[in-house]
Please model this.
Amino acid sequence: MPPALVVVILVSLGAPAALRALSGRPRSLAAGYVAATTAALLAQVSGEIAGWRTGVLGDAQLLAGGIAALLAALAVAALEGRAE
Model:
């Protein structure tokens, strides 16, 4: 597995878990993980295509992936709150 994917996957697993630890949401961590992983991978690909070098760790678009994963986890938490 490429090192960039390892960093992106760790970020995408950490964002929903940290959000749940702080606020108790998202209750469905599986949905949070899927959304955060998808967003982080899209940020990785977009950063590679655009040649963005801000917040890069090795080949991993760490800043973009972290922001995308956090936003995705927040979106899942907001949707869960609205569904109740």
About this structure: The helical segments are 3-23, 29-50, 62-83. The radius of gyration is 13 Å. The beta strands are 56-57, 60-61. The mean pLDDT is 85.
